[in-house]
């Protein structure tokens, strides 16, 4: 057997050391959000959890996450009870920071376990590749930036997702566990609903229907899966249904009043659309197009709220849902016809792509929905790797604006560059040749694309300020998001070609 | 000189997997399967064989850079701690005073608020940083108004200045020195990279410079550059670099006897080389002159402008010690005042035998209650310290003088510095970095990562780190201290994570039984000490009990490190061969062929 060094635990030790050193680093309001949830779940009775609004950061995750916060708050109570008072807004004593940061690190063990299972589940011939992919996820700069500096629990949540994906790879009996795990994940954070179509199709075809014919319905399996999922959702939402609070809970989970683009544009189709709109404002007089004067200011400022476009037509929420679903359907059909595990992971990735690229009010952090499932497949062969490369660059560069303080700047940039060099080179050595010819010129495109990243980051982080000072603040953000959007869309097109031609 | 630089580089043979001389790989005897000997090696496993140095080296630098910068996020010494703050304020204040005051005032300015008491190179370094910082934000270094400032942006600037200074001096010097050592000891570049990472991840250096806040790595880097020049056979460059180190921080004196002995040795053995001797002498004098040129030029400018000295000063006592009568009217008088004043500031003879609590002999003897030293006359004590120091550095200096061989340099430097640290006058706990540096360099020598050497280098580093704990705890740096120390111990496969280094038998490159007992006993005691320090408060009549225990154990351990270095130096030099003791070394065999 191949020597798989460094092992996952070895990397975890070194990564943990770095993460602990990052404890006093910048933390976003998400830190206070989670502290507030700890306080709410600990000090308030169950029926007030989704009504409490002393802090503006109300509880807007599904019930399992609330239970998760409750469990952690029990430990916090032994450690430092002051952080558990709802009135203690913006409380960040060192004990609170140590505790909350430590919970992120400890709960990330789920991810480590899932990745070890992933390596174990892969056939001997691709063990090395799986090992490299697993390390790339464990050491992902996305998780470092979002979880360990910005503050969230994605390591834990993506750990559950990978666990559920890997369980589907074991014998057919494990599909049930995989489905139930995914249902539990939905009750932890509902953003994973975007991936649900892939799960639905795969479980339907591979678990509920017979392998030979789609008319061979496995009734017992259907009952098992159905009751499993109902049980999970019952555990999560049942108590609130009993209290007749479901409408309140759902109004917290799905706030439709937000705008199409987030304050900072996530690098998706709508970022390109907005960028085009910006350019058209200047071109409109020559092209004789009507300009909505009121909208001009709102787009420049990129405020949260209803984004309106000056030249191009506005986008209603319904439109984004139709587009998202439309982008998912071809992959779902292919998965239904050929329900292999590889196709399942590819479809999850494509569902992630579709929701990220076309979704309503997408946050840049959601790029992990694409990167992490894709990482599991990136080493399948060189064509997949070709599509992965621009995504790896664009996805992580697009996270840079999350951190804007001087002290954290070198950390995010150096860590990301280190990761890109190490893993893109390792992947390049490990990815096996493809049976099919390469996509025409795609590799050239991705090399050029990666090269552009260097001057772009230098301009956005340094030269813009030297040249313009505080003026045109939106410009670097717009450049980064448009640049990243090109990369994400490019890698999506590349992946579509690879997926549908193999 | 120009001719030699054009000779084509010899491509060294890469014998990666088969001839692992250095103890990084363990091979299972039955299956002949290779595994990494300790976790740090595992991280280099994918780079084994084919990966270019152009990729490995930047990756190493990024990793060690990240750990440095993440340590810098934590508080520094004296953060929000009036009235005096700490070393951070001292360094910031020097930038403030050098950019605002006339040069003649630098060494006369108020000693009470962190007066400048480092040699001129530090002053110039402060001047450059102060100018650069004032360009970004003048309020950081506004005269008098900026004292005790703790602006977060200032912290970023100061931390970055340490980081950049280190990367301009220490890091290139260690890389080049590692290459020379590897060439000398026939180590392949893969193992040299592992040793380089281990050296650069040395926790004490990171914690003091990037946590506590100092610029030690500039001085240490110049010392490494000096060692590196010696290894490359460029004695004149080594003089220049060493004077630079002395000119940055007087603590480089710890190494001075070894440097002098080696340089004197290569002028006499194997045959007397007068030309080399004259060259060394001239370069040394010229380097010192160069060191003082900016200060004296500044004095010239101030004399020309007729800037008076501050009114409240006392002239340096050294001035009266000048062997010829000095007239205040003489043209050279202002220069003489500056020279003597700078020396007076740099060497404060009036201070006590040791400062605070430091793990050397004097403090251990005094604090443990074995023998109270404050009953003695200062004069007598300083003489005793001088005598004992001379006694301790004499053996290594004699060895390196009579056998000026390049392989002996790290050990000779380490032994001398340990002697100074343990016995001399006016030692800080931070000075333990000086003996640690050459001792850690042993990792990139032949069999440097076999248990015998790795265990001792690890022992010295972990023990030194442990004696730094009280200082770092005062700075609120407990967490980075724990993280970096444990990480290094883990990577090097040392206790408390792994005792494999102690289970190999002595014949297979392991350590002997006595070493095992001493090391494991010390580690156990250190861990127990942390337990006491954390959970048990010391008796009220002995509030410093834990620190005293720390100092005594540390001094004992460092004494053993001194003896170990001395023993190995004697063994390697062949002096003990008359007693039938000799180390079989591939380097020696090659030399004798």
From TrEMBL, chain A:
The chain crosses the membrane at residues 98-119, 131-149, 182-203, 223-243, 319-337, 343-363, 409-427, 447-468, 474-500. It is found in: Endoplasmic reticulum membrane. It is a multi-pass membrane protein. Pathway: Protein modification; protein glycosylation. The keyword Nucleotide-binding does not apply. The keyword Transferase applies. It holds the Pfam family Alg6_Alg8. It catalyses: an alpha-D-Glc-(1->3)-alpha-D-Man-(1->2)-alpha-D-Man-(1->2)-alpha-D-Man-(1->3)-[alpha-D-Man-(1->2)-alpha-D-Man-(1->3)-[alpha-D-Man-(1->2)-alpha-D-Man-(1->6)]-alpha-D-Man-(1->6)]-beta-D-Man-(1->4)-beta-D-GlcNAc-(1->4)-alpha-D-GlcNAc-diphospho-di-trans,poly-cis-dolichol + a di-trans,poly-cis-dolichyl beta-D-glucosyl phosphate = an alpha-D-Glc-(1->3)-alpha-D-Glc-(1->3)-alpha-D-Man-(1->2)-alpha-D-Man-(1->2)-alpha-D-Man-(1->3)-[alpha-D-Man-(1->2)-alpha-D-Man-(1->3)-[alpha-D-Man-(1->2)-alpha-D-Man-(1->6)]-alpha-D-Man-(1->6)]-beta-D-Man-(1->4)-beta-D-GlcNAc-(1->4)-alpha-D-GlcNAc-diphospho-di-trans,poly-cis-dolichol + a di-trans,poly-cis-dolichyl phosphate + H(+). Keywords: Endoplasmic reticulum, Glycosyltransferase, Membrane, Transferase, Transmembrane, Transmembrane helix. Its EC number is 2.4.1.-. Belongs to the ALG6/ALG8 glucosyltransferase family. Dolichyl pyrophosphate Glc1Man9GlcNAc2 alpha-1,3-glucosyltransferase that operates in the biosynthetic pathway of dolichol-linked oligosaccharides, the glycan precursors employed in protein asparagine (N)-glycosylation. The assembly of dolichol-linked oligosaccharides begins on the cytosolic side of the endoplasmic reticulum membrane and finishes in its lumen. The sequential addition of sugars to dolichol pyrophosphate produces dolichol-linked oligosaccharides containing fourteen sugars, including two GlcNAcs, nine mannoses and three glucoses. This is Alpha-1,3-glucosyltransferase. It comes from Zasmidium cellare (Wine cellar mold).
Automatic annotation (TrEMBL), chain B:
InterPro entries: Glyco_trans_ALG6/ALG8. Keywords: Endoplasmic reticulum, Glycosyltransferase, Membrane, Transferase, Transmembrane, Transmembrane helix. It comes from the Eukaryota. Its main location: endoplasmic reticulum. Residues 1-13 have a biased composition (Basic residues). The keyword Endoplasmic reticulum applies. This is Alpha-1,3-glucosyltransferase. It comes from Zasmidium cellare (Wine cellar mold).
